[in-house]
Automatic annotation (TrEMBL):
It catalyses: octanal + NADP(+) = (2E)-octenal + NADPH + H(+); 20-hydroxy-leukotriene B4 + NADP(+) = 12-oxo-20-hydroxy-leukotriene B4 + NADPH + H(+); nonan-2-one + NADP(+) = (3E)-nonen-2-one + NADPH + H(+); (5S,12S)-dihydroxy-(6E,10E,12E,14Z)-eicosatetraenoate + NADP(+) = 12-oxo-(5S)-hydroxy-(6E,8E,10E,14Z)-eicosatetraenoate + NADPH + H(+). The lineage of its organism: Eukaryota, Metazoa, Chordata, Craniata, Vertebrata. GO terms for cellular component: cytoplasm. One of its GO terms (molecular function) is 15-oxoprostaglandin 13-reductase [NAD(P)+] activity. Belongs to the NADP-dependent oxidoreductase L4BD family. Pfam families: ADH_N_2 (PF16884), ADH_zinc_N (PF00107). InterPro entries: ADH-like_C (IPR013149), ADH_N_2 (IPR041694), ER (IPR020843), GroES-like_sf (IPR011032), MDR_fam (IPR045010), NAD(P)-bd_dom_sf (IPR036291), PTGR1 (IPR014190). This is Prostaglandin reductase 1. SUPFAM superfamilies: GroES-like, NAD(P)-binding Rossmann-fold domains. Its main location: cytoplasm. Gene3D superfamilies: Medium-chain alcohol dehydrogenases, catalytic domain, NAD(P)-binding Rossmann-like Domain. It comes from the Eukaryota. It comes from Albula goreensis. Transmembrane segments: none annotated.
């Protein structure tokens, strides 16, 4: 009997693969900054579940957050869509799917803290990976940045940079849904073509224009009411003087700054802020967490109605997490970058 018990336990023991931060990034991340480890997981206790990652997210925020929220040796941070494969918690039955903030792990023992069940309304023919993208945190970021921070109105002109990325592509589409003129920029001609397919009124490749200032002016000679900022750096310096009176700027990201070893110095914003009476506000998506369920349903409805198109850049294989992350930071992706286990 004891031998039988030990065999059962042996069959149910699970090995989890994890990617850890071996060394804090110095400049742009490199392969040697990451380490792949394997750990043996115990049986779930009462109230716990065993999760198996199905899709994992790679996002720009991971780069700056790794410095302020991680120490060397920690598992890389991030969200995943995971399937419950063992459960001793009635709230999370076997076979259900959850959004889990457990980082770059293939398997996790969880007591349920921080887990979010994927929407019960989720259509069977829609990839669940979108719960990490347009119908997830990036989509919510776009929605709240426009509605809560910019308080965007029909007929206004919206500028968004990194517009072909996970957040920017949703920002532009929501802007069109809300009756705005939308100007976007991206770093390749293929991305610019994608933005035009999404319905952007004007899109340009910021790497090939002779003058960013002139390109922004040509796209909207009257200026911009709202500016959704994902990039920072020289782009921001060119955009701020072209804001309209009482313009609003939602500061979501600053990817042009994330890999600097020496902080950039640029023009100061004070005079533009004063003379144009601008509102510039940084935000984190979690501020409006109480609205997430209703907001996700709105995003899902727009997608089902064909108003919101969701493109993904999918990398296969957990072993390729660092490559997917670094590729995303280089701008290899159009739409949301995810890893399929």
């Amino acid at each position: 009997m004891e031998n039988g018990d030990s065999c059962v336990k042996q069959r149910t023991m699970v090995q989890a693969k994890t990617w850890t931060l071996r060394k804090h990034f110095d400049g742009f991340p490199k392969d040697s900054d990451f380490e792949l480890l394997v750990e043996q997981l115990p049986e779930p206790k009462d109230g716990e579940v065993l999760l198996e990652a199905v899709f994992l997210s790679v996002d720009p925020y991971m780069r700056p957050y790794s410095r302020v929220r991680m120490k060397e040796g920690d598992v890389m941070i991030g969200a995943q869509v995971a399937k419950v494969i063992q459960s001793k918690n009635p709230s999370y039955p076997v076979g259900s799917h959850v959004i889990a903030k457990h980082g770059w792990r293939t398997h996790t023992i969880s007591d349920g803290t921080g887990l979010t069940i994927v929407l019960s309304e989720w259509p069977q023919d829609v990839p669940m990976s979108l719960a990490l993208g347009a119908i997830g945190m990036p989509g919510l970021t776009a929605l709240y940045g426009l509605e809560e921070v910019c308080q965007i109105k029909p007929g206004e002109t919206l500028l968004v940079n990194a517009a072909a990325g996970a957040v920017g592509s949703v920002v532009g589409q929501i802007g069109k849904i809300k009756g705005c003129k939308v100007v976007g920029c991206a770093g390749t001609d293929a991305k610019v073509s994608y933005l035009k397919d999404l319905g952007f009124d004007h899109a340009f490749n910021y790497k090939t224009v002779s003058s960013l200032k002139e390109a922004l002016r040509a796209a909207s000679p009257d200026g911009y009411d709202c500016y959704f900022e994902n990039v920072g750096g020289p782009f921001s310096s060119a955009a701020l003087p072209q804001m309209k009176q009482f313009g609003r700027i939602a500061v979501c990201g600053g990817i042009s700054l994330y890999n600097d070893t020496t902080p950039q110095c640029g023009p100061y914003v004070h005079l533009d802020m004063i003379f144009k009476q601008l509102k510039m506000e940084g935000f984190l998506v979690g501020r409006w967490q109480h609205k997430d369920h209703e907001s996700l349903l709105r995003l899902l409805t727009w997608m089902k109605e064909g108003k919101l198109k969701c493109r993904e850049h999918v990398t296969a294989g957990f072993e390729n997490m660092p490559a997917a992350f670094m590729g995303m930071l280089k701008g290899d992706n159009i739409g949301k970058a995810v890893v399929k286990v």
